[in-house]
Design goal:
Shape: globular
Radius of gyration: 21 Å
Helix content: 25-40%
Order of helices and strands: EEEHEEHEHHHEHEHEEHHHHE
Structural class: alpha/beta
Strand order of the largest sheet: 6-7-8-3-9-10-11
Largest sheet: 7 strands, mixed
Distance between the termini: 42 Å
Amino acid sequence: MAPGEPLLEVRDLVKHFPLTGGVLIRKQVGAVKAVDGVSFELRQGETLGIVGESGCGKSTVARMLVGLERPTAGHIRYRGEDITQLSGRAMKAVRRNIQMVFQDPYTSLNPRMTVGDIIGEPYEIHPEVAPKGDRRRRVQELLEVVGLNPEFVNRYPHQFSGGQRQRIGIARGLALRPEIIVADEPVSALDVSVQAQVVNLLAQLQDDFGLSYVFIAHDLSVVRHLSDRVAVMYLGKIVELGTGEQIYDHPTHPYTQALLSAVPVPDPDARAHRDRILLSGDVPSPADPPSGCRFRTRCWKAQELCARVEPPLAVPAAFHDTEGPARHASACHFAEERRVVPSE
């Protein structure tokens, strides 16, 4: 990898799921545009948070990154190599370095396998990583690393709580010592107190193992705690991209501003003076997204230009000649900085 080159580079990623119809002859009559032109980079040791409401395409992006879905178009480059068309041994080698932690700690673990078999299964697929005689020791070490008793190796998933199961899933993801972990809403199914423990564990593991994360969630406060940069998705596209400070303290896209205005504020005085934004209408169907800007049907700033021209994800013209945290990529013709949560 050349100096300064991103570890993972995603360019114009597209995933359309076909819609079929007909009685005698099934034919494609449309497509669900789950992901429609997503681009971002992930650097070594960095955490990129991806946020957005349900159905915006976050999980589909995650599945394409690890090869569970094949893109309709676009490129995913790992260490400079395009992995979108790889298969067989070549894809198997890449998967060793890009692992995934799934959202549901209950259905992502095989109930008929012991914890030792679940965490050790990657060694069956990649036997070169650990010789057979050393696998049990490695599995017990991984259990200890994620905060579980190494003696739990012979227990089954139903004998653990939700937080413990997610720790088992994290241990499985670490088994092959990957460079990248794609975490698809890893704490959304857990209690709030357990969420904090798992997030802190992920942060500690990143320091210990030099991991890079793609961290997907709809909880903005969780993403802020863990992420270096944040991408905001809406209806299959990234609408704003910047550092945590830029996105949370200086949002410029109307959708980001609306999301942040809905975040609970624990201080009653601050809550009384916050700027609440209530969106009208429903999220359009990804099978028939609006022309131009996809957010325009719910945006209070929408004008005729928004229906004709799709705004690019770039630094808005209003900020070209300025410096500061508001100067970051935003896909809006009329982007402007707006503080939606009172300053501390």
